[in-house]
Every structure is written in structure tokens, then in C-alpha cells.
């Protein structure tokens, strides 16, 4: 009994440090009563409403109904597409492989050559070691190299008239 | 250590291993391989007292200077059809267009949009006249020979959409739409240089990679190349930059992509052209190491060419085959990407 009375006391009245009893007057909502009672214009944002309408539209989710033959055709089209892309990817892989092998063969040829063009000659592999040096390879990369492909060419076309700015050496 | 090694290598290169026992395994492997190559060269020599002269190759550096593609490639007919098919399926799955999110009510732009929407039946501008909400929604497959999905047709549709609706008599709307900036039509994908077949122009075959090919003093077409400068001990990258400058002038904004070669070409000399160099080695042929370069701006100028270049062309891959020697082509074919 004592415990029940104790909990009852906990909920009904909370005493602060000075011993004064505190009672709860407001509801748990944080909205002020005055705002809830006002009949003024709605604070609801129309854009949010539109987004909500789009997200939870009564038509969601939209069904995709296909007849039996149409479904079969859809399957065929997708199979054809898979074969098409697989073939193309295979071609691209082969091409990359060829390029890599050409590069590897050239580097191997360079590795065994000396500066005098003799296999195992003077400074054998020096050019090869210099070639594999990766220090600062991106230092001189021009910004134009980052140009992406577009569907339509530029209005000005290729800049044939470009001239290198020649800096005169100080005498 | 010795017990774990390959017994055959111990018998062949035992002396080399005794020297390099204090170094790591991969280094010792490299050294063994180097000894192996020189040992093979030694083994081929006749057993006479006078050693045969060494065989040498002249080292050359070459530049495969290319202009990258400028525009996207033409799509395969199947790709075009498939993309249009996917777009229309998406239209069947998509929810109704939220027009009031994009157009304010009672504005000329909304009026204009509505009239165009009535005409093409769908908010999408690039899939032709098709409504995914009508009773003919099932009829989403284009007929054979339809122009929908072609890039030219899409361009026309997008440009027409930018124009104010033609039958508009609403004065307010006309005034409002006149203030709108209407974009110009894009440039065509085939240029004047394409029509003229100008092989010196860089403004042609915009979908393809173009390679610089030069005609040397002997009248042979090849990539710009020259002997490697053994006096300055330059790197291959420096050689490539020098060769571009010497063969086609300074007015090209170029960049050598890597420090290492992307391919090589070996040419043995004929019997009458085999010479002996100052070190006493027999020069039996030449090896050209190709470096990959890109051009960003400018044009080749061969008027003051130091390497005796008499002509140049910018060619796609398949045209190079027609210009160069078959053996040359055999060694550069794999280097060049097909596009």
C-alpha cells in the first residue's frame, strides 16, 4: 500500500527543491492555444502540398498491364537488349586488352634495351625506369582535357587559329 | 634459402646468386632475369676467339597525336528504338505531371504549357504524341519507320516547344512570351569540313578520334617520329614533345598523356642498309616507341618543319590503314581505339 501511495504522489504532485508543489496546467502539445484557435489564413505551404500530392497520389502505385503476347514481346526485347550490350561490352574489353598488351610489349622491349640500342647494353632499362616514373604526371594536365562529349558541337568549332604565347628569355 | 630455390636456376646462374644472396627475393629474381637475357645473347655467339659485334637497334620516339571525339556517337537503330520504348514504358508508370509545381496558376506560361500539352498529350517532349492515361495507353510501340527517338526529331521537338504557341491571340501572353529568351538551334553534327572532305581540318568527323599523320622526306606516311636524342639523354616524354614541335610547329596545344610508350614498331633494315655505329655494334634495324598525345587547340604547321615533313593529315583509324605500310599498320592497329 505504501508503494502505491508513493507512486500516486509522484504523478500527482512534484515538489521542487524549495518544497513547493508543482501542478501541470497545459496539455502535452507544444502548440499555443491562441494559434490553434485563430481563424486566420492557413499557414500551410502550397508547394509542400503539391509535393505531397505527387508523392501520395491516389494512383500510386501505377500498374503496368501487359497482355500475354505483349508481355512475351517485352521479354524478347529485353533479351535482345541484354545480348546487344553483352556483345558490345565484349568488344570493348577486347579492345582494351589489345591496347594493354601493345603497351606491355612496348614496355618490355624498352626494359631490356640499353641507351645504345643493344639488348643488355649500357644503362639497360634506364629509359624504362624513367617511363614508369609517376611523379607529377598530372601536373601539366590541361583543363581542356576535362571537356565532356556533347550531343551537339560548339558554335565556334575547332580553334585552328590558336597560337602559343612565346615568352622571350631574359638576356 | 638455397634449398627452396629452383634447382635448374641454381645450375645455370649459381654464380649470380652467390653474389646477390644478401638482397631480397624479388630483386634477386629481377637480376636473375637480366642475367638470363644477357646469358642467352652470349650463348648465341660463335665460339671463335674474336667476339662477334653486338647487335643494336636505333631508338626512335614517335607520337600518336590524336584529337578526341567532340560529340556523342550516333546510336545504333536498336538502341534508339529501345530507349524510346523504355521512355514510353516509364510514361505508363509515372504519375500525372504536377504542373502547378512548375507553373504558377493564371500565368501565360501555364496557358502556353496547357495548349502544347493538349497537342502532344504528354508532358514529355521527346517521345512523340502518346498519352499513357488515355484508353490507347497500350499503343506505346512506335510503328516501323517512325521518326520518334531520332536525335534530329528530338531537337526539333525541343526547339518547337520553346516557341510560343502559334495560335495564341491572347495579347498578354504574347507580350509575356516575347520576353522569354528563345535558344538558338544547335550546330549540325556534320560540319562543312565533313562535306568538303577536308583532311587537314580538325573540325570534321566530330564523333571520331582523328590522328595526325605526316609524310616524311621519303614520301612515306607515318606518325611523327624521330631518333631519340642520346646526347641529351632525354626521356621519351621529352622526345615526344620535341618531335611535335619539330615536325608540326609550336602552335598546337598538346598534352602527352603518359610517360611510358603505348606501343612500338620494329623495322629491320635491309642487307644494304645495315651499318656499324661508333661503338662498333651492328645496327640491324630501328625500334620506334609510340607515345600517346592529345591535341586541345591549334593546328599543325609544317612550313618550318625541322624533320623534313612535307604533308600532314588528320585521319580516323580506318583511313590510316590506307596510308601506311601494312607492317606499320600491323603494329599500330592494336594501339588505336576503334572509335
From TrEMBL, chain A:
Q: Name one GO cellular component term.
A: mitochondrion
Stated name of the protein: Uncharacterized protein
| GO biological process terms on file | mitochondrial translation
Which InterPro entries has this protein been placed in?
A: Ribosomal_mL40_fung
Task: Check the record and name the Gene3D superfamilies matching this protein.
Answer: 6.10.250.3440
Extract the GO molecular function terms from the UniProt entry: structural constituent of ribosome
From TrEMBL, chain B:
Q: Which GO terms describe its cellular component?
A: mitochondrial large ribosomal subunit
Question: Is Transcription regulation found in the keyword set?
Answer: no
Q: Where is the Large ribosomal subunit protein mL46 N-terminal domain?
A: 58-194
Q: Which domain of life is it from?
A: Eukaryota
In alphabetical order, the GO MF annotations are: structural constituent of ribosome
Q: Where in the cell is it found?
A: Mitochondrion
Q: Which InterPro entries match?
A: NUDIX_hydrolase-like_dom_sf, Ribosomal_mL46, Ribosomal_mL46_N, Ribosomal_mL46_NUDIX
Q: What is its main location?
A: mitochondrion
Query: Which controlled-vocabulary keywords does the entry list?
Result: Mitochondrion, Ribonucleoprotein, Ribosomal protein, Transit peptide
- Which protein family is named in the record? Belongs to the mitochondrion-specific ribosomal protein mL46 family.
What's this protein's name?
Large ribosomal subunit protein mL46
**Organism of provenance:** Microthyrium microscopicum
Amino acid at each position: 500500500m505504501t508503494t502505491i501511495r508513493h507512486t500516486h504522489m509522484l504523478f500527482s504532485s512534484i515538489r521542487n527543491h524549495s518544497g513547493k508543489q508543482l501542478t501541470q496546467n497545459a496539455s502535452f502539445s507544444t502548440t499555443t492555444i491562441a494559434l490553434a484557435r485563430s481563424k486566420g489564413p492557413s499557414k500551410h505551404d502550397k508547394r509542400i502540398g503539391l509535393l505531397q500530392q505527387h508523392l501520395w497520389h491516389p494512383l500510386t502505385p501505377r500498374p503496368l498491364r501487359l497482355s500475354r503476347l505483349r508481355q512475351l514481346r517485352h521479354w524478347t526485347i529485353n533479351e535482345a537488349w541484354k545480348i546487344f550490350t553483352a556483345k558490345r561490352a565484349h568488344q570493348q574489353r577486347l579492345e582494351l586488352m589489345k591496347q594493354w598488351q601493345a603497351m606491355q610489349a612496348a614496355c618490355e622491349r624498352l626494359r631490356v634495351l640499353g641507351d645504345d640500342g643493344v639488348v643488355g647494353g649500357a644503362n639497360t632499362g634506364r629509359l624504362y625506369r624513367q617511363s614508369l616514373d609517376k611523379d607529377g604526371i598530372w601536373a601539366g594536365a590541361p583543363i581542356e582535357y576535362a571537356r565532356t562529349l556533347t550531343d551537339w558541337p560548339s558554335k565556334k568549332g575547332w580553334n585552328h587559329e590558336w597560337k602559343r604565347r612565346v615568352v622571350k628569355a631574359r638576356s | 634459402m638455397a634449398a627452396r630455390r629452383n634447382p635448374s636456376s641454381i645450375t645455370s646462374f649459381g654464380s649470380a646468386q652467390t653474389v646477390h644472396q644478401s638482397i631480397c627475393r624479388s630483386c634477386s629474381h629481377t637480376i636473375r632475369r637480366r642475367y638470363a637475357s644477357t646469358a642467352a645473347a652470349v650463348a648465341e655467339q660463335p665460339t671463335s676467339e674474336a667476339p662477334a659485334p653486338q647487335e643494336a637497334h636505333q631508338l626512335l620516339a614517335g607520337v600518336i597525336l590524336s584529337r578526341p571525339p567532340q560529340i556523342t556517337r550516333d546510336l545504333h537503330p536498336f538502341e534508339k528504338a529501345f530507349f524510346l520504348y523504355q521512355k514510353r514504358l516509364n510514361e505508363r508508370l509515372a504519375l500525372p505531371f504536377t504542373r502547378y509545381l512548375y507553373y504558377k496558376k493564371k500565368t501565360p506560361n501555364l496557358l502556353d504549357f496547357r495548349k502544347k500539352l493538349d497537342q502532344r498529350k504528354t508532358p514529355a517532349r521527346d517521345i512523340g504524341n502518346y498519352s499513357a492515361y488515355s484508353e490507347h495507353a497500350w499503343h506505346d510501340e512506335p510503328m516501323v519507320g517512325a521518326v520518334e527517338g531520332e536525335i534530329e526529331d528530338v531537337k526539333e521537338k525541343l526547339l518547337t516547344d520553346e516557341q510560343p504557341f502559334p495560335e495564341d491571340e491572347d495579347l498578354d501572353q504574347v507580350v509575356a512570351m516575347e520576353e522569354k529568351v528563345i535558344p538558338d538551334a544547335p550546330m549540325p553534327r556534320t560540319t562543312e569540313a565533313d562535306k568538303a572532305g577536308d583532311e587537314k581540318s580538325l573540325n570534321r568527323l566530330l564523333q571520331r578520334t582523328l590522328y595526325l599523320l605526316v609524310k616524311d622526306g621519303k614520301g612515306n606516311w607515318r606518325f611523327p617520329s624521330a631518333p631519340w636524342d642520346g646526347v641529351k639523354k632525354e626521356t621519351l616524354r621529352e622526345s615526344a614533345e620535341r618531335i611535335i614541335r619539330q615536325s608540326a610547329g609550336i602552335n598546337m596545344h598538346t598534352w602527352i598523356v603518359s610517360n611510358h610508350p603505348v606501343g612500338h614498331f620494329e623495322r629491320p633494315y635491309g642487307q644494304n642498309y645495315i651499318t656499324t655505329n661508333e661503338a662498333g655494334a651492328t645496327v640491324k634495324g630501328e625500334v620506334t616507341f609510340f607515345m600517346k598525345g592529345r591535341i586541345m587547340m591549334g593546328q599543325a604547321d609544317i612550313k618550318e618543319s625541322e624533320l623534313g615533313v612535307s604533308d600532314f593529315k588528320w585521319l580516323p583509324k580506318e583511313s590510316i590503314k590506307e596510308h601506311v605500310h601494312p607492317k606499320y599498320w600491323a603494329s599500330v592497329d592494336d594501339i588505336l581505339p576503334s572509335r
